[in-house]
Structure prediction request, 485 residues.
Amino acid sequence: MLNKLKNTAKHTFIYSIGNLSTKIIGLLLLPLYTAKLTLLDYGRFTILETTSMFLTMVLGLRIVSSMMRWSAETEDKIEQGKILFNTYIVLIFTAIIINIVFSPLKDWLSQVFFSSMEFSHFFTVIFAIIGFEMINQVPMNLFRFREKSVIYSVIFAAKLSVVLILNIYFLVYAETGVIGIFYSQLIASILQMLCTLPILLKNFNYKFDLILIKEMLGYSIPLIFSAISVQLLAIGDRYIIKYLLDYSQVGIYSLGYKISGVLNVFVIQAFALGFLPIAYKMQNSPDAAVFFKKIFKYFSMILVFGALALSLFSREILLIFARKPEFYIAYKIVPLITLAFIFKGIQYMFLLGFHYVKKTKYIAYIVTFALFVNIGLNFVLIPRLGIWGAALTTVISSLLISVISYYVSQKFYPVKYEIGKMSLVLFVGIGLFLISGLFFDINIYIGIGIKLLLCIAFPILLYVFKFYEKTELDKMKKVLYKFRK
Prediction:
């Protein structure tokens, strides 16, 4: 089991390094966006980007999840090649159909989103991006399954670098505005497909199997409904903010969400990328329950520590990277959104139990229920609290999914997660953040020093409250001893 823990940590670390490029490039682009785009344009860009990500997730049929699940059940490379080939065929066919069906709707969509036909061409580009992004899911998930985290991270970082260079060209030199950002994404997606295609061709078993496709879709279709609900939970508030408030408030909220998203990219996504293939292979092991219990404990600790650090330094981050003062206020909603991300990471562990027993329909039930609660609360709280109402609603919805998924998943795949210790970690993190509020008006450099001390205090307080077990402390001491030598 120790080897599995180390393997999970290793791949999570590599994916984190790969995802580092996402945030580095995101931070490099932030001054560019805030300098070249108005707050109104940034709000429009956010809505379009959010819509593109949502459609990519939903229209991709979640069949890559089936690909991973079916491939985990066999060690036969030929059979895995057949699963890979059929998944690719389904997604290519789906991408073509989407572009044929949605292309005539571009004028109508422009009118719906912006009350103008001026942005019709935006949707032509976005539909093409969606098609290529769906197809690119196959090679990237192949790398995940084969535990080729280095290759995955290199390709991902290379793609983002292309996006960065093209963004600079289109925004600074060509001065194309928002559409230039989407041109950059489309070109990078096409290059990614061309670079990964030779690898796929070597791994394909060119045997079309309609029965296999039906079985895989039977597993993934319930995930589509849960994916819709999950995505609407993540992005729906922006549409409601736009409807109840305006695009400038969408821009502020989205910027705060982007800063908070560092936790999602570095911790949650990196962990999910590295952990899922291992979890599928580990699920029937006698040590599985203990393995998942330990993973949950330290994953929760890292989540809360990351959220604490982001919440403490969000103001400084925006002061450095945002080029216009009108963007600075976004730091105020970061603590609430990072708290929501903590619950999102925790619920990920609980929801995996439904995947292990192929009861994915329960994910759809739980998330859809939370979505209705989310929509209702947004319409109640946003008119009263503005974007802070949206952030609070996100916290409540994420917590609701975590609680329900824990109790329901235990009936199908029981694991004695250390909920008490997770709660301890959360209370310590919240307590330290509240203490930081006492030093808000002091000199910025002294404030940074105090915030660093609060971060250092986090693991020390956990030790004081007996979060770590003796065997875990002994192993840490051995690692430190080897490091010193």
Q: What stands out?
A: The chain has two domains: 1-21+236-485, 37-208. Residues 1-21+236-485 form one domain. The mean pLDDT is 84.
